[in-house]
Amino acid sequence: MPTTQDKQFDILQQRFNSFIETLETMEPEHVDLEEIDRLIQMIGDLEEKCKQIKEQE
Fold it and tell me: What secondary structure, in 3-state letters, does the chain show?
């Protein structure tokens, strides 16, 4: 049975995969400020989730 930490790692992996998929679909010459802000927010979310997991150890 998966532990809470295992579930948290799964969530983190899903968020990271979403971030990578978003990056892969962007065309660098057509990226606007709104998309860059969204990427920054996604990185912030990943960082926050990492902190939460680390605190649970």
Answer: CCCHHHHHHHHHHHHHHHHHHHHHHCCHHHCCHHHHHHHHHHHHHHHHHHHHHHHHC
| One pLDDT digit (tens) per residue for the chain, 57 residues | 778 888 888 999 999 999 999 999 999 899 999 999 999 999 999 999 899 888 887
Q: State the pTM of this model.
A: 0.77
Q: What is the CA radius of gyration of the chain?
A: 14
Residue carrying the six token digits 């939460």: 52
* Dihedral sign computed on CA atoms, order 34, 40, 43, 45: negative
At 6, list the tokens: 């295992």
In Å, what is the CA distance from 20 to each residue of 24, 26, 49? 6, 10, 16
